[in-house]
């Protein structure tokens, strides 16, 4: 294994995942992961550029940042790349009017989007709003369309909350893909466009940045396939037994 | 195209799907499909053996038969092959204790099954019981198991009710498969063992029987891959535009 200094050579910026890296979500917003407030403060004092790259799609960017600031994190809205605003750009560019299968907490992100006569479905991590009725309604909308378009804010399998592991949007994306015989378009990690937009905001090239996350596919794999370096933390959804079972393909590789 | 008499040569028995063939489900149990009560009566008066082969897993076999008899169908419990009793046999044979992700209506089928300390999950068409909380609980049970076993009662994409198309168990099976990184074991159509058990009950060989259903994969494809003949009806979930769109691979082929 190369020394850290060697592996980090040329790195000028850090992209940080939020859930599982800075905090574990849960009741009343969850709890900070021990040491993460201080680690972020240290990063911010360094020469490195810092940006947050999250697939959080259950609450708005504003509410997420408010929660993090309340926990003591040094973060502002302009530093966060999240999938709902990215999806709004895609919807506008393509003239799409979504039926929203999302939680109430993120609905405000779409307030400038025309949702009349939907010609696509946008699915986010809707949590408790993934009732049979709501998922079935999205399915019916898709089945009525000549060319069904499903846009998914991330495709995570699950995430960790203080109460345990929770199904993420990817599971419900797969359910709709199968039922409708279609393939979703993912906005968010691991889509390359998503990482690239974060890099543009930082003014960095891919080889100058490192992604830090707890998801081997969404964070590590996604960043690497864009030419970035990446590291997987051992917090959040990380489970040591996955290494032994061979479920995780790799760990924290550069 | 060969004449019907030629295509039916040697057929001694008919396997009938129920939902979409005899009735469209819905409020208060749904409504019979026009002509189906009479068609079944005619079949029963013929020389042909008749059996029902259904993936219905939202209500017990007893309640299903009660509903059909109330609608005027000539049917008895002993004539029905359905997935919940078949799953109970599998569970007993393999010493599996299921966590049940099923509707209350079918729970009675499992009353002789030990459900303490679950070492597998059984998923059925749970309808409204597919709440986020219930699906997530099944996910958590699977993630706690060393060797997660998921048994799915059918893998249908959707079915038709009087109120519209409804997501079937297959969609939720896919969600759990993706979230857990596993593959479900299907009990019910199109599993060959399921058709074979129905044929055994009829005392027929596969080439002597014909399956009639509305699902091109579960009914037609499943029966054909067992060596049976099969026909797809144009009722239930059948949608003519799928032929034009090329979604249905074939139609009513022998």
Which architecture of the largest domain in chain A would the CATH scheme give at its second level?
3-Layer(aba) Sandwich
Oligomer designation: homodimer
Q: Summarize the helix and strand pattern of chain A as letters.
A: HEEEHEHEHEEHEEEHEHEHEH
| Number of helical regions of chain A | 9
User: End-to-end span of chain A in angstroms?
Assistant: 10 Å
- Which chains make the largest contact? A-B, 32 and 32 residues
Number of domains of chain A: 2
Shape of chain A: globular
Number of E-state strands of chain A? 13
CATH class of the largest domain in chain A: Alpha Beta
Strand percentage of chain A lies at: 15-25%
Provide the gyration radius of chain A in Å.
18 Å
Averaged pLDDT of chain A = 93
Mind summarizing the main beta sheet of chain A?
A: 5 strands, parallel
Helix content of chain A: 25-40%
Strand order of the largest sheet of chain A: 5-4-1-12-13
CATH superfamily of the largest domain in chain A: HAD superfamily/HAD-like
């Amino acid at each position: 294994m190369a020394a850290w200094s060697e592996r980090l050579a040329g790195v000028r910026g850090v992209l940080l995942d939020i859930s599982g890296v800075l905090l574990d979500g849960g009741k009343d917003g969850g709890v900070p992961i021990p040491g993460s407030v201080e680690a972020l403060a240290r990063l911010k004092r360094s020469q490195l550029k810092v940006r947050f790259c999250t697939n959080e799609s259950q609450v708005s960017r504003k509410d997420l940042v408010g929660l993090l600031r309340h926990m003591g994190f040094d973060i502002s809205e302009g530093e966060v790349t999240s999938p709902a605003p990215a999806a709004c750009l895609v919807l506008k560019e393509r003239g799409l009017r979504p039926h929203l299968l999302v939680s109430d907490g993120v609905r405000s992100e779409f307030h400038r989007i025309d949702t009349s006569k939907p010609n696509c479905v946008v699915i986010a991590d809707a949590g408790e709003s993934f009732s049979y009725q709501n998922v079935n309604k999205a399915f019916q909308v898709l089945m009525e369309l000549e060319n069904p378009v499903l846009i998914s804010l991330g495709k995570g399998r699950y995430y960790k909350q203080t109460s345990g592991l929770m199904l993420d949007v990817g599971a419900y994306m797969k359910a709709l893909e199968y039922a409708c015989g279609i393939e979703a378009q993912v906005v968010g990690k691991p889509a390359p466009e998503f990482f690239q937009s974060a890099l543009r905001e930082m003014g960095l090239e891919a080889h100058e940045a490192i992604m830090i996350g707890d998801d081997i596919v969404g964070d590590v794999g996604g960043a690497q396939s864009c030419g970035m370096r990446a590291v997987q933390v051992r917090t959040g959804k990380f489970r040591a037994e996955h290494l032994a079972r061979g479920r995780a393909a790799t760990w924290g590789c550069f």
